[in-house]
Design a protein that fits this description.
single chain; four-stranded antiparallel beta sheet; about 50% helix
Length: about 80
């Protein structure tokens, strides 16, 4: 597994997220973290040879699925 580590501020700026969202990503296993000897945390997106788990992409996929299900409901209501 390959990790490209960044400071929290870099992650927050890159993905335009809040600290709460960063914590949720850590809890949801979308992002890794390491505590440095100085006590700081560095974060890394999970990369392996089979996939790249980008939290923003995961978020958009979830949103797309929700939109698709809403469209299905609307189309079913129009057809009845």
């Amino acid at each position: 597994m390959i990790n490209n580590y960044m400071k929290a501020k870099e992650i927050l700026n890159k993905y335009k997220i809040t600290r709460n969202t960063l914590r949720n990503w850590v809890k949801g296993n979308l992002i890794t973290y390491t505590k440095t000897p100085s006590g700081r945390y560095i974060y890394g997106l999970k990369l392996d040879k089979y996939s790249i788990r980008d939290p923003k992409i995961t978020q958009f996929k979830d949103q797309i699925e929700k939109i698709k299900s809403i469209c299905d409901v609307i189309l079913n209501n129009e057809n009845t």
